[in-house]
Amino acid sequence: MADLLQLLLAGASVGAVYALTALGFVAVYTVSQVVNLAQGEFAALAGLVAISAVGGGLPLPAVVVLAVGTVVIVAAVMQRLTIAPVKRMTTLLSIILTLGVSTTLKAAMLLIWGAEGRGLTPFGGHDLTVAGVSVQAQQLWILGVTAVVAVAVGWFYERTLAGKALRACAEQPTAARLVGISIARASLLSFVIAGLLGAVAGVLASPIYFSAWDSGLALGLKGFVAATLGGLTSVRGAIAGGLVLGVLESLVAGYVDSGLRDAVAFVVLIAVLVIRPGGVLRQRAAAGI
């Protein structure tokens, strides 16, 4: 039983990182139908910036602000330079454009930080042992911050004027234009949100899973699979998808073969696309966000 609980905890912590990444995909796709393949690079960039900032002697709060701010700016510039100029955006074109941005970011990170993976200093706290299960303080940070962010994102879309405007653009873009909502500004805001979510995921995960110039590739793909489980349009579905994917990976690695961990996401993706392309965990009432 202790082994099972240990695997579930490990899966939930990595699944929380997938969930944050998946929320970034959902934020962008619902507004502009753009599949942002650079989402994983947002996380990798945030982790590397945070590591450099810690090396420069900055305190943790300043490090987090700097890392998140840097990625948000990169996401906004990306939207203005590659997405906004396109008048007729298609999903295929968005994949090509964001893949180009992803490749550019990876090359820049390789040039600046080199090929070696690095880990951010763990956040404060003490590791625990509960009922034979080892609980790392960083895992609690990941789960706790993810829960807070998930609630904040839900509150933003449900309660704020800007969030309701994004929902309107996602559900009825023509009607949104008629009432004066700028789709271009909504798209920019969605990329800012995606950058923020990706940066939080990258900073939280770095102490355990390390950051490297190419670490965003796997994270981005798994975040996309998690978002796909929710139909790419559901906040709750993306969160649930990330947790389910993380737990499945952990169980397969623990009980079958650790070498099959990375294959789980792609098996799940194929199954979803074949059996239920609308998303397994998507709620019927979750039109748009």
UniProtKB/TrEMBL annotation:
Single GO biological process annotation from the record: amino acid transport
Keyword Amino-acid biosynthesis: no
Transmembrane segment boundaries: 7-32, 44-77, 89-113, 140-157, 188-212, 224-248, 260-279
Cellular component, GO annotation: plasma membrane
GO molecular function, one term: transmembrane transporter activity
Alphabetical UniProt keywords: Amino-acid transport, Cell membrane, Membrane, Transmembrane, Transmembrane helix, Transport
Topology term for the membrane: Multi-pass membrane protein
Location(s), subcellular: Cell membrane
Domain of life: Bacteria
Keyword Mitochondrion among UniProt keywords: no
Family: Belongs to the binding-protein-dependent transport system permease family. LivHM subfamily.
Entry-linked PANTHER family: ABC TRANSPORTER PERMEASE PROTEIN, BRANCHED-CHAIN AMINO ACID TRANSPORT SYSTEM PERMEASE PROTEIN LIVH
Protein's name according to its UniProt entry: Branched-chain amino acid ABC transporter permease
Species whose genome carries this gene: Planosporangium mesophilum
Gene name for this UniProt entry: livH_3
